Structures are given as structure tokens and as C-alpha cells.
């Protein structure tokens, strides 16, 4: 845990195209344990928003309850935040999104929050293709209540007390694939190179963008025998591809090998470049993504990177045929039919 | 008996009887005679017995009344019970396609047989049509017997099946068969039990409370509805959808100025409502008892984090799944103190569809002004039955009260924004909507303890300041909520009666009945919780106060005692909790007994005439 953050910043700190420095995207000082994977994810969110030149006040950050759900305090201080109730962030985010389709929504959850108490809401937010970047900081354990196994802990994984988990794990990425999620990625809190472009791509995706981030709990689940420790994850990580996110209107400078490279154009003109590591996998083909995921699991690998993307994604407002204007800006004269109409309705009830 | 009787239709659920029965009630209403129809239906889609009970009351008493003058029976399953329920001297009109078993006969009521099914079998080819038109046959027979104006029925049928000429013709034919059969076989109309045109309904309407709430939400500017299906609130969500589709589609773009989400459960429904309101849209949900239990955690969040929230609770019989298709007012305490910790929620108690409509705007205004949940407490009786009501009213000069919300311009002028800083001293602080200003006004909404600047804190004094501020807001709320209504110019009795919501109909009738017996009462209808000072004054000014409510545990009385510190020995409960709407006679009896020390003269049903007199068979 850090108690003091240096206020000094290099006077020449780089600015993004809005003229903001990275500092503008930071939040309050973290109160999580020193070395917590979650702080790295917060850092990646800050970096992604800075690089994307997002207006912080046009972002709403929402979370449930748990260590992970505390993190929205630690990034984007100029965004409105909402720390809701345990497992219920998806519903609050759904309501918020219905009210204003113009903001960007970042949802932060944990494995207890999404895979147990909030499983129902997680599932249904995916079904509705809620337009949100949904980050699960997944450490396989309940940190705030001192280390109980969560529903994503692998069977046989040993927690700090030395007990092996007796139950099968829920694979959130696999589940999301099954549910028809339109953007599914997995990453590791210790791999910024991969995580930052992944967050950028997720923020550009018009629909439910899941990033399941393995984010080790240094206090309760970083021991030998745990399958969500730093060491274990580093040893067993298997990337789908090297990922590069190219925002709209940005010149492509990176070179890619013919044959291995896939370029996925997003709705807004942005591009995701992937240097594929597996020839039979195409992130736009759900079936091949399922195969790739199962194959990795069978080999004891933690598959990371972009797993699946639906480039034809239609988000909730599009499904509901809602007006382009944010509903919270529709004015009374557009909303209230007035007394003349009411008189006609009365007449029809006599 | 002229324009004053109760008729009950005993039907089989899912046989299309509802539409015929509604036409019957509407015909009487259009003849200018006050009418109060009530569905008594099972938690079932098809097959089980269902009843439709219509009270006709020239004097305009709309509460339920015991004693059935005329029973229409087309359900063999419930015949024994239906025969037993007819008042001595009353009538039992049945489908005589099959003979009644002689053991079922009573000698103190009249049996009138019409071979409804046979008539339809002879006339119509399609089996489903036979079933549906059988309902019109009995409507025709009853119309002849009690003298309903046939052109009125024709008009209603024509409106109902507008554009479907074949159906209109078939329904006219079935109606006529019933009329002719009755005229040929019985003395029509009945000498006493009949209707005669009046001008006693004025400009009133016939509407169910759920539709009124749904339409009220459209007028109130609600843009987001999140809900989960549950009887008896489902038709409220349906009504919002129906009216929004008609009134809220942008004429230029064809796109919806509203969004409706059927959530995965009540927890998600209320979560969405809170999220939408937090983000500056007017959003609501509708539910019933079990939903209130599920939504409680979120209601606590909205109370503590101070987020406007509107919920309609169409109450049904509890506890647990209880009686899903019966009425009660038994969610009061669960709603008033919804959620763990120290919480108090604002409640509204509409008693007519007109008030349901009006209270939706009141609820949104209060929710945004007070930044807290407002629960509109209706019930199945009000929500799902067609209630006679004053017309819905909207004032075009009305402006939505959005409460203390700071825009970008206002934020510019502020040195430091404190979301929970009570600058006005009324416990209501200023909020901001996400996306307002690049550098000012953002804050963290949380269910955890926080200081005036929305920063997390576990400091005791900061927590206490916040809780006291919420208590201060509760005091302010008392002056914002609708005041109680009194039905006397000045104090005329030492005895008072308090009621609310659907208990109103029966309570006001009981007041008249008792007055006729020489017992005048002062009465007060409470419209909201927290109770305003006038409620306490009324109780203090009367030696004995009866509190009428529809639950077992006198929940409303508990609220009065708990919130006002009233001496419980001054308050007497009159309770009804069998799932049926409370009757005036029950109230009359209990008050009479309490005041006079003995039961009032029993209810003596009028004898109409010797059995069989009207039958020409």
C-alpha cells in the first residue's frame, strides 16, 4: 500500500490531443495491497484513456462490491463513479446507459462480483449487448473477506490456507462466448503491452466488451499451488496474438507478416491488428474461438488476447430503436402529450 | 333494488368471458348508473373458476358489497358454491344445456335456465366461436332480465370489434338469442332487480389503476421502464408500453423517446431504475410484494446514496407468494422501512385511477426534489379492476420539478462542489448528472459511508452528520408530500376514522351508514408517508380513532404509532385480510360494536318475491 504519491511531474509530460497529461486521468491514491494486480489494471485503464484522448467527464465508471470494485476511485477522478451493490453493477450500468447513450461506460467487477453473486446480471447484460467495457479483475479469491475461493478458482488450485479448491471453475470468457458476447478478451494484469490496446479496442466496440483479466491477489492467492498467482500465470500464458489497436484516422505504421496478420476494422473506423499465433483461429469466427479456447484449456494454458469479436455488433439502444438523443436530454414538451390528448383518452374510457 | 344490486358471473378461466363481462359493466355505466366491477380470478391461465362481480349502486358506492342478488353460472365446477352464495330471494341464472342436479336446488332462490351452449351449437359452426359467443348469449339474457338498453350494448359491441364486421354480426346474433330466449321464457324485466337510466356518473371514466399509472408515467416524463413480470403489476408495465408506443415515438425519426427493458429479475429491474435516474432520466419500475423484498437492498442504496427512484407496488396477498391474485395492503412496513440499517422511504397512497395518474408525476417530482425513492402503493383491487374515477387531469402549465441539479454554468460559479454538503439546511443537497462539466462536479456515488464531498470515510462524526442530514431531509419531506384529505368542514365528532388507498370506497360508505344509525364520524384519508403534521393533529383532536386497513397486523396503525408517537390505546384497528376488498358493512359492524357495545342490527337481505314468480315455465 502506498501512502504518499509524489506530486512532482516532469514539466514536459506528454499531452494527448485534448491537451491533457496522463495525470489528468489518474484517480485517488489506491488503498489496495502493495503489488495488487488490480492497481496495474487501473494503470492500464488510465493509460488507455490518456492515449485515446477520452474526455474523462464523458466516461461513467461503475462497479459492484469487492477489492476490484474499489478501483474506480483510483482512476479517472474527473469521471462520475458509481460503487453499487454486490454483483449488481450490470443493472445499474444498463439503466445509466439507457439514460444517456452518449457517455462511455467502464464497468469494473471481480470474480466474486460477476461469477457468483452477480452471475445473473452478468449473463443478461451480455444477452442485451449493453455497450460497456466490462473488466473482470479475476484473482480466484475473495480478498476483502480474506481469501475464500471464488467460483473462478481452478479445481485443485491451492489457496493460502493450503486447502485445494474442490469445485470446477467457471471460465468467464468461455461463458461469454456461449452467451453470444460480441467482444471477448482475456489478459493478465502483468502484461501492459497486451492489456492497454485491449482496453482501447474494448472501448471502441459498440456492445458488451468483456476483458477477463487475471489479476493476482498478492495477499491471499499468490502462493505456490495457486493457478492465479503471478508465477503460474506468467508460465502458462498463451497469447492468441500480438495485439495492436489503431484508433480511427491514425496512420498505420506497424509492419505485419503477411498470412499471420488479421486486421479487424471496428464500426468507427478504428482497426485492431492481430499477429496471429494460431493459424486455424479467426477472432471473427465464434466456432474457431470456441475451439481455440477449449484447446488451450486442455493443454493447461491460460489463453490471452482477443478471443472473439463480432464486427456487426448491434448494441442495446440499436435493438430498442431508441432515439439518437440521450433520453436524459429529451425535453418535457417531447415527453408529455398534454391535456388535449388526455381529453381524448378520457373520452375513450366512458 | 332498482339500480342497487350485486351480480356475479361464475366463469371458467380462459373462455373469453372477461370481454363479455366488461361489456356488461360498461353498458350499465353508459346508462349513467355508477358501477363497480371486480375480477375475482385464480392464479391460472386456463381451466380454473373465475368470477366477475359487479356492484350497481345508484348512490355511487363503489366498494365491494356482500350478498349476491343475481348469479350467472356457466361453470359446472363451481356450481354448488355459486348456488350457496346467492342471497335468499336472489336469482341463479345458469346454462341449462345440462340439467342441474336436484340435490343442488334451494327453495329460497330463483333458478332460471337458459340453454346457452345448445343455442350456440345450433347457430354457430366454429367450436371456438361457440364458446366465445355463449358469453354474449348470457349478456343478452341478463340484459332482458334487468332491462339494459340494447342499443347501448350494440354500440359497445360495435366499438369493441371495430373493423371486424363478421364478429359484430355474430355478437349481435348471440346477444339477440339471449334476449329472445329470456323474453320468451321469463317475465322480463324483473319487477325490482333492474336498471333504469340515470345521470349519476357525470364525466367520470371507467379505467383500471394500472393503466392509469402507466399513462401517468408517460405524462410524468418517464423515459426508462425496467420491470420484471409479476401479478398484479404486469399490466402496468404493459400499459406504459402501449401508451408510449402511441404517444412517445418521435414523429420525425420514428424512433422511441423511451426504453423498456424486461429485466431478468426484480433486483436488476430496480438496479436499472437507479442507474437511469442517477444519470438524469426519469425511470421507474412496477412490482408487487415479493419484488419489494427482492428490491430492498437496492432501495437502501438509493436512500443512502440519495438517488431518485420511483416504484409502483401493486400490492397482493402476502406473505411469501401468498395469494397472487387477491388484494391486500400488506406491504406497508416492508416498503416504509425497506432495506437494512436506518432507512425510511416515501410512500404515496392513491385511491382512484385519477389519483394513480396524478401520483406518478407527484412521485417523480418528489423523488427528484427529495433525491430518494418514492413508492406508489396501489393494490390489486385498484390496479387490475376497472374503477369508476373522475377523469384524468393534466395541467399544461405544469413543469416537471427536477430538484437541485447543478448544470455546467452553476458549477463554474462554485468554489468546491460538495455532493452531500447541506448548504440550504433542509437536508437536500445538490447533485450533478454525469457528463456535465470537464473538471467540476464529478463525484463518487457509493453505498458506503462518505463525507460531504462524497469521499469514503469510516469516521464516526462524519457518518453521524450524514445520517442526521438524511433525518433532516425526512422532516422536509413531510412538507412536500400530499396533505391528507378531510371529508367534513369542521369537527363534528369525538370519533375519527382514518383510511387510505382502496379502503376509501368502503370507508366512506360506512361513514354514511353509521350516520344513518346516529353515529357521526370525522374522517381523514391519508395520501402519503411520512405523515404530515395534520395527521397527528387529527388523531390528537379525537378521543377514539378507527384505522381501517387491509392486512392482519395493523401495519398502518403501527406506522402511525411509530412515527407520530401516538398513544396506541386511542387507535382501534378495523382489519380485513381475506384477499377480497373490504366492505362497508364490515366497517360499520366493527365500529358500531366498539362504540355501542353490541353488534348492529344484522344485515337483512331484501326478499324479492316468491320463488318462481318470474318464470313462465
Short structural description:
By secondary structure, chain A is an alpha/beta fold. Chain A is 31% helix and 19% strand.
Structure description:
The complex is a heterodimer of chains A (350) and B (617). With 350 residues, chain A is α/β, with parallel strands linked by helices. Chain A has a single domain (22-325), classed as Rossmann fold (3-Layer(aba) Sandwich). Chain A has twelve helices and 13 strands. Chain A has helices at 37-52, 67-70, 89-99, 111-117, 119-127, 172-179, 192-204, 230-236, 286-298, 316-320, 332-335, 338-347, and strands at 59-63, 80-83, 104-110, 132-138, 141-142, 148-149, 183-188, 208-214, 237-239, 241-246, 261-265, 271-276, 302-309. In chain A, a hairpin with a 5-residue loop joins strand 5 (141-142) and strand 6 (148-149). Chain B has a seven-stranded mixed beta sheet, sandwiched between helices. A six-stranded mixed beta sheet of chain B has the order 2-3-1-4-5-6. Chain B is globular. With 617 residues, chain B is an alpha/beta fold. Chain B folds into four domains: 4-200, Pyruvate-ferredoxin oxidoreductase, PFOR, domain III (Pyruvate-ferredoxin Oxidoreductase, domain 3); 206-389, Rossmann fold, CATH 3.40.50.970; 405-480, no CATH class; 485-596, Rossmann fold, CATH 3.40.50. The interface between A and B is large, with 59 and 73 residues.
